[in-house]
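Encode chain A's predicted structure.
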Amino acid sequence: MPPAGFLKQAAEVCHTNRVLLITDEIQSGLGRTGKLFAYMHEGIRPDMLIVGKALAGGFYPVSAVLSSNEILGVYNPGDHGSTFGGNPLGCAVARTALRVLVEEHLVERSAEMGKYFLGLLKSMRSAAIKEVRGVGLWIGIELHGAARPYCEALKEEGVLCKETHDRVLRIAPPLIITKDEIDWGFARIRKVLEKP
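Encoded structure for chain A:
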């Protein structure tokens, strides 16, 4: 996540200068951060929004560009196309995934479980950890050294995560994760990161 206030300031600069504000929420959107979209943490509204990945709940590759008629209306039929654009199966899967997201309150669950998980992770004491940060169920543990060896050690414990920017462990569990599953994962993360 960018620093607090960054998106709000970027939106002001864009709107003052008549520049479109386009937010790419392919990773951060659809509940990952505890809001439907990450830009909502700043109280702004982008001119265009790009979504994907979670849009079909991980079952089918689908993405979308969302905007107003004023902006997208500059295209006429046939001006722009894509190989799989408007795929009926992809659209049906996306509609179902969005319905599940809303009906099962997964955005709110991400906020609640993320706060719980982040609290546990911030309780760790390790010389390897520089900072623990996150929003919703999008969590990063920044290390003083390389993250890859920790990812490999966590894999051996049954926890999958990804190193990002060489020194960050990115933790992004499914939005349906339970407290018991978080406790299970946290015990293994603590074991690996607090190892002398």
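The mean pLDDT is 94.
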